[in-house]
């Protein structure tokens, strides 16, 4: 499942970023949004979008935005599979803290061979989710999408399961790890302060205070 030779690591990064933004907004992605996500100038993003178009990975309509083609979607999902398998391997087999694996996987995802991908997947028992709760694309490059809500959208008395959190903010991950909170944990909202204030949430026998931005980033299943 390796990408063709002409698909550079930069092209893979752009395909992955477009996929993430499409998934979030459900529509075409603006060049400005893509540039912001990747930390580049709008001109650089426009140049790379043109390159992706030449490779048949995106369709770009002026004033509307860019969308992945089926080929582009496969490139994005392949890189995501590498990234999330690597994160889980680093955590489970090498004991790397979950707040550090994102940056390591960002580098290694581009050089992971098909053979090593298969060995890692087999070693981990063909997992379905990475350490942060994100679904791992299958070998066939399909991916499970379950509807979730943000913790911040809940009210006092609501309960459910903490399912996932972005791997992009190490401080949030360290905060949760220090308190023993991880995807798969059950919770109950004890109290919610007004005006986007913190939530008081019970995990096990401990009540933790979760700030608004952290609660917004935490995705949950309710009920």
Briefly summarize what is shown.
This protein has 223 residues and is of the alpha+beta class. The protein has helices at residues 9-25, 31-38, 42-54, 70-92, 101-108, 114-123, 170-178, 212-217, and strands at residues 58-61, 65-68, 149-150, 159-164, 186-192, 199-203, 206-210, 219-222. The protein is 42% helix and 17% strand.
How would you describe this structure to a colleague?
- The chain has helices at residues 9-25, 31-38, 42-54, 70-92, 101-108, 114-123, 170-178, 212-217; strands spanning 58-61, 65-68, 149-150, 159-164, 186-192, 199-203, 206-210, 219-222.
- The protein is built from 8 helices and 8 strands.
- Mean pLDDT is 93; it is low at 1-5.
- β6 and β7 (206-210) form a beta hairpin.
- The relative contact order is 0.11.
- The protein is an alpha+beta fold and 223 residues long.
- It starts with 8 loop residues before the first helix and ends with a strand.
- The protein has a 6-stranded antiparallel β-sheet with strand order 3-8-4-5-6-7.
């Amino acid at each position: 499942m390796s990408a063709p030779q002409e698909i550079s690591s930069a092209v893979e990064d752009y395909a992955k970023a477009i996929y993430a933004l499409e998934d979030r907004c459900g529509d075409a992605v603006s060049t400005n949004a893509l540039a912001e996500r990747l930390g580049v100038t709008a001109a650089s993003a426009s140049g790379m979008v043109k390159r992706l178009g030449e490779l048949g990975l995106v369709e770009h309509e002026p004033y509307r935005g860019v969308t992945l083609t089926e080929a582009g979607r496969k490139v994005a999902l392949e890189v995501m599979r590498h990234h999330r398998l690597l994160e889980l391997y680093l955590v489970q087999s090498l004991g790397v803290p979950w707040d550090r694996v994102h940056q390591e996987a960002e580098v290694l995802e581009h050089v992971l061979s098909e053979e090593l991908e298969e060995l890692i997947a087999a070693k981990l028992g063909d997992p379905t989710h990475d350490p942060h709760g994100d679904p791992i694309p299958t070998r066939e490059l399909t991916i499970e999408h379950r509807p979730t809500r943000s913790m911040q959208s809940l009210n006092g008395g609501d309960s459910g399961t903490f399912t996932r959190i972005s791997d992009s903010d190490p401080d949030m991950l360290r905060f949760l790890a220090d308190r023993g909170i991880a995807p798969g944990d059950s919770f109950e909202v004890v109290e919610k302060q007004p005006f986007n204030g913190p939530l008081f949430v019970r995990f096990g026998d401990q009540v933790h205070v979760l700030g608004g931005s952290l609660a917004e980033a935490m995705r949950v299943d309710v009920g």
